[in-house]
């Protein structure tokens, strides 16, 4: 019956609009409506949303893995910074079809830490609430150095696949995971968010990348996959800093 009423209402609205003149507003007024703890809930709307809320709650409370420690982001390096950058690089490599040289996250894009104990899907949404996608840029070594110095100056470095030595607020040297120094004229693959690849956070110089490949996967979803696989292994996580950023 409700479905028939809705169809009838839509049909009636369409019929009336077809035979009437078009009107335009000549003015606007508004009233301020206070919404606080004393505001009464719309019971009809609550009943309508309840099935969706139950499904959402079930999704968000799924436990992915356990952590032995509480994790908070920090400068110049922290365990969660390293964990997330490593997760991005690894998951990007799976989807790219070959290993990624460097993983990069903008520090301000990591919005929360992770608790000690169960880590749920909801916790990952708190860490990465944005719908940013993974993009792989091929950059020259000189462009990688420009990227690192840019984010070192404005935020902090959240990186994977390299070790950076910093002095006088500038990256002085970079060594890759294979032990080789970064070469200005060689090219490297860098996994990052499409936000940064598009020039976000002032990184407009990335438009000159040698190559760009969008993986069409949400960074948050990649993190969820990463932590779910760790959980299936049956071991809690206990990430640490490893000295990938050294300040002299």
TrEMBL record:
Keyword tags: Signal
Signal peptide bounds: 1-20
Pfam families: 5_nucleotid_C
Gene3D superfamilies on file: 5'-Nucleotidase, C-terminal domain (3.90.780.10)
Domain of life per record: Bacteria
SUPFAM superfamilies referenced in this protein's UniProt entry, alphabetically: 5'-nucleotidase (syn. UDP-sugar hydrolase), C-terminal domain
Residue span(s) of domain 5'-Nucleotidase C-terminal: 70-207
Protein name stated in the entry: 5'-Nucleotidase C-terminal domain-containing protein
Organism: Nibrella saemangeumensis
Upper lineage: Bacteria, Pseudomonadati, Bacteroidota, Cytophagia, Cytophagales
